[in-house]
Amino acid sequence: LIVHCIALTEQFIVAHVVMASINKLSLRGIRAFSPDDDEQVITFSYPLTIIVGANGCGKTTIIEALKYAVTGALPPGNKSGQAFVHDPKHNGTPVVKAQVKLRFTNRAGKSMVVVRSMELTQKKTTMTFKNLDGTLRTTDDQGNKQSLSHKCTELDRQIPILLGVSKAVLSDVVFCHQEDSSWPLQEGAVLKKRFDDIFDSTRYVKALEEIKDQKKIYTSKVKDLKADLNLLKGHKHAAGGYRNELDDCKHQLSLIVDERNEFQAKVNGEREKMVEWKDQMKKGDDLQATVDDIANKIDNETVRIETQQNGLQSDFTETMKREDLENVLKGFGKTMDTDARELRAANERVDEIKSKINSLMDQQMSSLGEKGQLEGEKRTHDEHLQRRIELMEELANKYGLELSISQTQQTDIMNTQGSHISANDDGVSVFTSGTMATSSTIQITDEDLEAFERSIAAKREELKEQLNEHKNRSRGAEDSIQNELTELSGKIKAIESDLDRVVSEREKAKKAYQKINRTTGSAGRMRESEIKNYKEQAKQCAEMRAQKEKDPRRTEIPEEIKHCNEKVESLKSEIFDLNSSLKDLRKVAEDQSAVNMLQKQLDSEVEAMTEIIGENSSTFNSRNIQVRPDDENLFGILNEAVGNASDQLDTATTEYDNHSESLRLAESRLSKEAAVLNQNKSTIKSRKKQLETLSADGRGVQRIKQIRMAVQNFERNNLLLDQTIAQNIEPQELLQHFTDKIGELITDNDQPETISRTMKKLKKMSKEKDADGNTVGIICPCCTRALVQEDEVRVFQAQMNTLADVTDSPIIQMDREKAQLNAIATRNYSTWRNSVSSSINDWLDHTRISAEIATLETSISKGETDIKKLEKDLEDATGMANDAKDEITNLQQFLEVVRPLRDDCARIEKKRSDLDSKKNNLEFNAPNLGGKDLATVENDLQRNSDEKDKLQGKITVLNQEQSDLSTAISQLTAKCTNAEEMVRRKEQQFAEQQKNLTEKNELNEAIHKCDESEQKLKDQIQPIRQKENLKATERNKIRQQSTVEERKRSDILNAFINEFDRFKTVSLQIEKFIKSSKLLNLKSLETVLSSIVKQITESETELNALTPEMEEMKAKVQDKEAKQDNIMRNLELLDMIASQQKLEDEQFLLQDKMDKLDVDSIIGQYNDAKKKVDNYKSEIDRRLGSKDSLEIQQRELKRKLQTSEYKNIDEKYRVKMIEHETSNMCVSDLDLYYSALDKALLRYHGVKIQEINKIIQELWAMVYRGEDLRNIRLTSDQEKTSRASRSYNYRVVMTKGTTELDMRGRCSAGQRVLASIVIRLALAETFCINCGVMALDEPTTNLDYANKRGLATALAQIIAHRAAQENFQLVIITHDEEFVTMMKHELSSQTGFDMPERYFQVSREESHDGCYYSKIKAIDWDEI
Q1: Distance of alpha carbon 761 from alpha carbon 748, whole angstroms
Q2: In Å, how far from its chain's centre is CA 1356?
Q3: 1113-1168 pLDDT tens trace
Q4: φ/ψ of residue 442, rounded to 5
Q5: Gap between the Cα atoms of 1295 and 1270, Å rounded
Q6: CB within 8 Å of 961: residues ≥ 6 apart
Q7: How is 774-836 classified by DSSP, letter by letter?
Q8: Given its phi and psi angles, is residue 1072 left (phi above 0), alpha (psi -120 to 50 degrees) or beta?
Q9: What are the φ and ψ backbone dihedral angles of 1298, each rounded to 5 degrees?
Q10: pTM for this structure?
């Protein structure tokens, strides 16, 4: 039934789906097709295209091009494509480009064009073939043309898809090469590969193998994933413990941060107080600095006063008051202003005179320059006058011109210039030979100049006329000779033209003569008797054809065929009715069979259920359940039992889950505690190792201990302190101790300058002064006792001077010794502080690690106790979980028995219901066929089918008889036509022979006449050539003499014109100077220069008179300025003395403020606050140490959680679990896919082989005319391998009698060709559902007449059968015109399609380059 449905579906697709087809093929540069001429085009028709041609003309190239266009496969044995392209050596070019274009309709009904191009390059010894990129052109839905370029491999893949046929079918079935046409009978390996490619089953077998391999891979993967999942589960538990420990660390860190912030707030409060005390201390320091600064200013003022006094010209500070000095200064100011104004006015007058002198000198220099320029131009003018006279005389002497010049004498240059000007006004040009007192002047009038210029113009025209006259005379002589030469050349050309014409006629006649010889030489002499014999043969053929056409069977056979067809149609109608009845009867029979089958199944299932109930009776009894197979409520009892057991299973499962959860929690806690214990043990081991490293010699802990001992020894022995540091002092306290000591030692040092300044202040305080500031006595600055006696005063002052002395003061000496000791102590304390600071981290780490080790030891002890308790809890939880699991197992086993029974019971009840329904339907649907049963109807159907087959066999015999009769008539017609054609050719050949004889005689006579004419013309042309050469020599000689004379006269004229141009240039320059007023400008400049010299002299005299007065005024002003400066310096001295007194008063007041400010108390309070800050910082440091320890622990935990085992462990566990489950699903799915694909592949292969063999049987019966082979068929034997590597071996077998034999090696060449064609046609019918194209290349090879006739009949019937199918095309390529004639007659006897209008003929024709190329021509079908 499935196979029948598949066949109907394929027939429906063939009848209704638009099939792919080929429309047009064009070739260029392929094998024997020319690469330079136009493309050769074939248009493919529906349903048949026939291509005819002689051997070697290029027919097979067409099918090779079709195969290459659609698959990209090159023909066999073509040297990697080199032999497929036209040979460059034959074409005479290094590169040949070839192209194949194919227009086709794809399976969607859209027209497309594929273009494939190739290139063959000829190198020195080798040829290189190259496949160029192909092009695929189409039209979109809007009608726009689109063209896409593709790589060859991409095009090879796309074209078969567009045609809807695999590449293997296109290559081996549709467009099979002539050399491969018998591949169905090749050896097994080749046949297997081709059929595997056609069936396309290899990829499905590979898919089965791949599915099996993938299943193995996924099964192995599931096992690996299960192991990974268990490992990740343990890591997940451990990571949870680490996270809890990390949370504890974070909580402790939060507490430490709060405590640190509290101490930091206290530090900030004490620092605010320190800032306040520091401000007071800074205030005291600022007062001290101010006092010291004022003292320095007083000293500076004293030095300035002394310097000022030394620089004074006169000191008036003791004799005059300030007001008097200021009045004197004002008086000086008034007198100095008057003197300054007078001096300023005198200076301005002097500057004015100097400016005037400079301006006059500038004018003088400018005028002198202008005068020099004018004098130079006048000298140039005089030279031009002299040059013009010289040129005039030179022209007159050289060319014989008339010249008249008058000469006069002038003495005074200025008079000469005057007379020159006046003479100029009279129109006379004056030439002055020099600028001396006496000069000679040559005067030339305008009339003389005009006369001279006229004579020059006349001379120039004379020379030009002589030159032109010579040119005309020479040109006339040359023209005369040239005319003679032209006449002679014309005669020579005429003779040469006649000579060429004669030679051309002779050569033409010779070629015609040779052509006639070639034409008549290859064929023998034709006689009239031979023509008569051919006519007699043609007449006999015509009589035989007429006799055959009158055969009465020609009209009887169609009538008999018509009668048989009518009977066949009647039988078909009866068969259709019988089939309908048979269908109804079979349906009823099928229903009855189904009822019987269902009853049988029902009985079997009831029996099986009874056996199962008996086997499990003890199980039901243990649960107090009464089960009997004949109980009507059996399903209800079983369903209730399933429900109760399911509820109990749910309860047991819940208990088991609870116990499992308790067990999991216990395992988790145990795993966590074990992990923490192991971690603590590992941590304490590493901490002890770190502690040993920190306690090693040379590390910070040992250095701090050594420093503590060194400090104690130094303070006891060197500083002589009774109380030193404690033995176990902390490093932070030790650092604070060093800082305090360094501060004390720094503040304890006094500078010698400070002590000296203090003693000077005490000395100053010892002077007792009255209200006016005068010293009245000496007192002790400490006890304020008055020193009355001079000895006491002297001793006091001497002691004060000694104490204030920087070098000899005992106070300073004692202070220096103390400062040295303090410097040593400060250096030691600084060194120790730096060492402790660098080692404090080791000390803190040592302290922290020691505390951590103690904590870890406590944790380890507690952890071991907890683990023992957890192990006991785990054992209890495991026992309860196992009990619950056993209960679950028992319930599951019970359900495994009851549930199938319940389902079987339900299925049995349903089948009983279906059985009753089918019985009722069977009684209702039973047909009424007049008492005929199924066997009677089948016998009637078989009888009618046999009768129809006999009638169709008779029709086939009648068709064969009709075909034979038509073939005989066709053969006789062809024989008559050939005979008539032979008569016509022989008559035409006899007429051409007679005509050629006449033409040969005429050509011989024409050649003889041409020879005579050629000799005569050669004799005439020789004397004319000699005369022409003589005239050419004479012409060249005259031309040379004329050229020499012409060049000479031209040189004379050019020289004359150049000399005249120089004369005109000089005359123009003279006229230009005369027209200007430069002589008058020269005279006026001399007058201006005299006036400028006079003014300069007057100004210098006045300037010399003002100089003594200026010097006297300057000395007076400088003396008054010196006196004014002295008074001003006295006033400045008074200001300095007042400033010094003011500074001393300010110093006294500031010193009083310092005495009132208690600086020592402020320093004590500052130091107390500083100690508190240091204590608080120590607490903060301790907290920071704990914080660092916790942070280290936190980082260690984070590091562990970031390791590859614990990082993202939850996500890894989830992903791994998903991967495990999906892999399990993949294994199950692959099983389903494998089974489904295996069954489908078996079914598909069997259906296709059956369909192919059915078509082969039908075609072989029509085609093969022998009696020895009853049938052939294709067999496929499955290899005995596993299902995954299933493979098939193919072979073609033939049936001889009742025996099947392998056809390969046991058949004739004709049988092999015919079998190959039939198998290819069957494969095309089966696999080319989307493409209706089939090409046969030389199908009649090795076939006798009968089998050719059978092939033609079969092809005609296939065409008639498939003509109704859209886009069906059969392409036949053959050299056998007899087979084409058979095809024509067979097609004419069929109906239901149109005959093709044309067929195509391939031939070799000579091209313009003398080479022969393949050409394709379309010829009308009627001309066959």
Answers
A1: 21
A2: 59
A3: 777 777 777 777 777 777 777 788 788 788 877 877 877 777 776 666 777 777 78
A4: -100, 120
A5: 6
A6: 553, 557
A7: -EEEEE-TTT--EE-SHHHHHHHHHHHHHHH-TTT-HHHHHHHHHHHHHHHHHHHHHHHHHHH
A8: alpha
A9: -115, 10
A10: 0.37
Sequence-distant (≥ 6) Cβ neighbours of residue 611 within 8 angstroms: none
Query: To which H or E segment does residue 167 belong?
Result: helix 167-169
Angle 537-540-546 (CA atoms, 0-180°, nearest 5)? 145
Question: 605, 599, 612: which is closest to 638 by C-alpha?
Answer: 612
Provide mean pLDDT across the span 719-725.
67
d(CA 1234, CA 418): 139
pLDDT in tens, 49-91: 899 988 888 888 898 899 888 888 888 776 677 788 888 887 7
Around Cβ 812, how many Cβ atoms within 10 Å? 22
DSSP one-letter string for 1092-1159: HHHHHHHHHHHHHHHHHHHHHHHHHHHHHHHHHHHHHHHHHHHHHHHHHHHHHHHHHHHHHHHHHS-H
Q: Whole-angstrom Cα distance, residue 48 to residue 1352?
A: 13
**3-state helix/strand/coil string of 739-780:** HHHHHHHHHCCCCHHHHHHHHHHHHHHCEEECCCCCEEEEEC
pLDDT tier, 588 (very low <50, low <70, confident <90, very high otherwise):
low
pLDDT for the residue 750: 56
3-state secondary structure 1296-1318: ECCEEEECCCCCCHHHHHHHHHH
Please say if the pLDDT value at position 1402 is more than 60: yes
Which positions ≥6 away from 963 have C-beta within 8 Å? 1349, 1353, 1385, 1386, 1389
What is the secondary structure of 855-902 as a DSSP string?
HHHHHHHHHHHHHHHHHHHHHHHHHHHHHHHHHHHHHHHHHHHHHHHH
- Sequence-distant (≥ 6) Cβ neighbours of residue 1393 within 8 angstroms: 47, 1359, 1360, 1363, 1364
Which two three-digit tokens encode residue 1337?
């290349």
What ranges in 1209-1365 are assigned the alpha helix state H?
1209-1263, 1309-1327, 1345-1362
| Residue 1322: burial class (beta carbons within 10 Å; 0-12, 13-18, 19+) | buried
User: Is 1144 exposed, middle or buried, given 0-12, 13-18 or 19+ CB atoms closer than 10 A?
Assistant: middle
SS3 category, 583: helix
Structure token pair of residue 1220: 């495990």
- Could you give the percent of the chain with pLDDT greater than 70? 88
Please report which confidence band the pLDDT of residue 25 belongs to, taking 50, 70 and 90 as the band edges.
very high
Helix (H) or strand (E) segment spanning residue 1372? strand 1369-1374
* Separation CA 1286–CA 1277 (nearest Å): 11
Q: Which helix (H) or strand (E) holds 150?
A: strand 145-150
Q: How confident is the model at residue 114 (pLDDT cuts 50, 70, 90)?
A: very high
The pLDDT tens digits of the residues spanning 791-803 come to 777 777 777 777 7
- Predicted pLDDT of residue 431: 35
Residue type present at position 509: A
Beta sheet of 428-432, edge-to-edge order = 406-410, 439-445, 428-432
What is the SS3 assignment for 434? Answer: coil
Q: Are strands 1299-1302 and 40-43 parallel, antiparallel or unpaired?
A: unpaired
pLDDT tens by residue, 825-868: 778 878 888 888 777 777 877 887 888 788 888 888 888 888 88
Give the pLDDT confidence score for residue 748 in this predicted structure. 59
Residue 1071 binned pLDDT confidence (cut-offs 50, 70, 90):
confident
* DSSP-assigned beta bridge partners for residue 1420: 1398
Of the ranges 204-213, 953-962, 1330-1339, the best mean pLDDT one: 1330-1339
What would the two tokens of residue 1269 be? Answer: 């082979």
pLDDT value at residue 115: 92
Quickly list DSSP for 1135-1153. HHHHHHHHHHHHHHHHHHH
By CB atoms closer than 10 A (0-12, 13-18, 19+), residue 276 is middle
Cis peptide upstream of residue 47 (ω within 30 degrees of 0): yes
